[in-house]
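Input record, target 12 of the design panel.
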């Protein structure tokens, strides 16, 4: 939820503003063309040098999921005309909905298949969970801001995302009742990799998250746990997320 890639690739981010919204015969806003343009923008962004996308591409299944999720429903009404610009937007409580390219990239890096059960830490508006839900068997998602958790749960239920379970709580601790997970995604940046999340990752699974390092710099990282439980970590690109917050002990 809360991210903009630090780098601008080919001017794509700067070139996007509000997109014109078409109105159907009943007077209802139709965002299908905007979603299609967003998919093409994300595809082009992935092809830019340094985009972080494996092989310079986002897979068709991830692009299809991105193109199917109504992002405009998951942003405040006052920002709806900007819903399909490739940029983050404020969603209240000092939080933002992530840039769609970052949502697509993190989803691609997770490599979760249709039978996977995944954990998301940082529900935000529910947008990332909605994209994941179209690709996996079930998404468990935790949001520390109770107001956001309630709103996301209501919006996702209303939109028919029945394979998403939302909980308000401290995501640093994971969700042990449903572990181990085939994949885990964190959408806020801690200063250390949360040990509970490593413990709750299934052997053969992946953890995709931003991590804050020296001088506040953040990197998007991928952690893989092999069949013997050994951990391999690699950095992908520089990013900027809000910090991962925790409940008081």
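The sequence produced for target 12 reads:
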């Amino acid at each position: 939820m809360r991210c903009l890639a630090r780098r601008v690739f080919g001017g794509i981010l700067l070139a996007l503003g509000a997109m014109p919204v078409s109105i159907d015969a009943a007077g209802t806003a139709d965002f299908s063309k905007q979603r299609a343009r967003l998919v093409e923008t994300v595809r082009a962004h992935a092809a830019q040098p340094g985009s972080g996308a494996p092989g310079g591409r986002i897979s068709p299944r991830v692009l299809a999921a991105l193109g199917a999720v109504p992002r405009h429903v998951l942003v405040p009404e006052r920002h709806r005309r900007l819903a399909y610009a490739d940029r983050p937007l404020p969603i209240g409580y000092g939080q933002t909905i992530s840039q769609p390219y970052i949502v697509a990239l993190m989803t691609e890096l997770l490599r979760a298949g249709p039978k996977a059960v995944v954990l998301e830490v940082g529900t935000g508006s529910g947008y990332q969970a909605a994209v994941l839900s179209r690709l996996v068997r079930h998404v468990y998602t935790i949001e520390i801001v109770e107001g956001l958790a309630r709103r996301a749960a209501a919006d996702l239920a209303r939109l028919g995302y029945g394979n998403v379970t939302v909980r308000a709580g401290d995501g640093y601790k994971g969700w042990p009742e449903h572990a181990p997970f085939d994949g885990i995604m964190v959408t806020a940046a801690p200063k250390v990799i949360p040990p509970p999340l490593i413990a709750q990752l299934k052997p053969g699974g992946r953890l995709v998250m931003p991590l804050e390092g020296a001088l506040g710099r953040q990197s998007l990282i991928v952690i893989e746990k092999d069949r013997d439980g050994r951990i391999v970590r690699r950095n992908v690109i520089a990013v900027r997320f809000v910090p991962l917050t925790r409940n008081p002990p």
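Residues 1-28 have pLDDT under 50 and may be disordered.
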